[in-house]
Write a structure and sequence with these properties.
Structural class: mainly alpha
Order of helices and strands: HHHHHHHHHHEEHHHHHHHHH
Mean pLDDT: 85
Number of strands: 2
Oligomer: single chain
Radius of gyration: 23 Å
Strand content: under 5%
Low-confidence stretches: 1-14, 345-349
Largest sheet: 2 strands, antiparallel
Strand order of the largest sheet: 1-2
Shape: globular
Number of helices: 19
Length: 447
């Protein structure tokens, strides 16, 4: 008979991993530029949930954070929306479309993938450290800054992705084009002249803004906490360079999120009696302000704040979304978005000679809050917001640097939710931030 040691040596090859633990997240965030060039970035982002879920399944019993029931309630509530996808919504064009089932399924997969990421961060306690997650997800911030600099330097840069070439004419629909056609920036003229607003490696500038906001806390921790001198030097360089696309993107929602989140952290640190960290934060803020004022970026900020062309449109769209949900389906919403009737200045949809920018976006867009409200009704919106607010209040007083990073990412998501949709890679990061806070609390309580 073989001894236990001999048996273990024979079994070892069969148990040896072909890939390291956490490889799907490394593949997603570190190689995101490759997926962007190939035109498959959104599909890879959703697809990483499959190997992560398989790895979690092999662990047996899984743990979940307190308040997770609210998130599950939201997922169930949102799923009910599939029953009302063909229901006519007030204030919307009364049409039906089988494409709504595809749109609903695509968005729902994002929420499921983000759920898997949350559970993965929280359950891989023995295998992967919190610092590992911060460095892997923080690498995405570097990708975003690089894409922003590309959009700033070459705003008209675009090309056909590999998937776009393979699909040919089948990939020319507006929905697919936004997913698979790489562009460096969105060209807009609301300042009175053409201005390229960085968007790479995403389709829209707003998507760039929210992803920049929620990955920033991961990057700060990953590149400055327990880091080598070389890593910290690189971190400082990336943060300085990030100022350029953050300003040139003209993303007021991003500016607001960074400002309010910074104030929140300053107040939090002051209440916790941490004067040195507070002084460091104020010095960093003063340095950033000095760079902005001493450069043309300051003038760009002033011009942007004086031209709030989208304010009226966002207000009208939000009001119309709210009224449509309240009048038509206040409990479960309508499952997915609808094209609005009229353009806020006439009963005809689309732009007019008097209002060339009056082509209204669908109801339930221009903000994650509006999407959740319109798609899942007030019931779903309460469960969604309740989950994130509960996580914020539960972890607000924790002194852990990882809890601070997670708190910052979730706070910036809630601040930008009336303006930016997060049914993209940012949703995975936001749920990872919840996992970061959860694990930080568990590890603190186990000491």
């Amino acid at each position: 008979m073989l001894t236990d040691r001999e048996t273990a040596s024979l079994e070892a090859p069969s148990r040896r991993r072909l890939l390291p633990v956490g490889w799907p997240l490394v593949a997603l965030f570190t190689f995101y530029p490759l997926w962007w060039v190939l035109g498959v970035a959104p599909f890879v982002s959703i697809g990483v949930a499959i190997p992560l879920a398989i790895e979690l399944r092999s662990r047996g019993k899984l743990r979940a954070p307190r308040g997770f029931g609210l998130w599950l309630l939201f997922l169930v509530w949102l799923l009910v929306g599939v029953l009302v996808l063909q229901v006519a919504a007030p204030e919307a064009i009364p049409t039906t479309s089988m494409a709504r089932y595809f749109t609903f399924a695509f968005r729902y997969l994002w929420f499921l993938a983000a759920t898997v990421v949350l559970l993965y961060v929280g359950n891989m306690r023995e295998e992967l450290s919190l610092l590992w997650f911060c460095r892997v997800i923080g690498s995405m911030f570097i990708v975003i800054v690089a894409g922003g600099l590309l959009g700033w330097a070459a705003p008209k840069f675009e090309f056909n992705s590999v998937l776009e070439i393979v699909l040919g004419s089948k990939g020319k629909s507006p929905f697919l084009q936004n997913l698979i056609h790489p562009t460096a920036a969105q060209i807009q003229d609301f300042l009175g002249y053409e201005q390229g607003r960085p968007s790479a490696p995403f389709a829209f500038t707003n998507s760039w803004g929210v992803n920049c906001a929620v990955t920033l806390p991961f990057f700060v921790v990953g590149w400055f906490h327990r880091a080598s001198q070389a890593r910290r030097v690189v971190g400082v360089g990336v943060l300085v360079l990030a100022i350029i696309p953050i300003i040139s993107s003209l993303n007021r929602g991003l500016w607001l999120a960074l400002t309010l989140c910074g104030l929140l952290l300053v107040v939090r640190m002051a209440l916790q009696g941490r004067p040195l960290v507070l002084v460091g934060a104020l010095v960093a803020a003063a340095l950033a302000a000095s760079i902005i004022v001493a450069s043309p970026l300051g003038d760009l900020i002033a011009v942007r704040l004086d031209n709030g062309n989208s304010n009226t449109g966002r207000t009208n769209l939000g009001t119309q979304t709210l009224e449509s949900t309240w009048q038509g389906s206040p409990v479960v919403g309508f499952g997915t978005t609808r094209d609005p009737a009229g353009n806020w200045v006439s009963i005809a949809a689309g732009a007019t000679a008097d209002c060339p920018r009056c082509t209204p976006p669908p109801l339930g867009t221009q903000g994650q809050f509006w999407l959740v409200l319109f798609a899942s009704g007030f019931g779903g919106a309460i469960a969604y917001l309740g989950f994130f607010l509960y996580q914020l209040f539960r972890h607000f007083w924790m002194r852990s640097i990882y809890a601070t990073a997670g708190l910052s990412a979730v706070a910036m998501h809630l601040i930008t939710s009336p303006f930016y949709n997060t049914v993209d890679t940012s949703l995975l990061v936001i749920l990872a931030a919840v996992g970061l806070m959860w694990r930080a609390r568990v590890e603190a309580e186990s000491l």
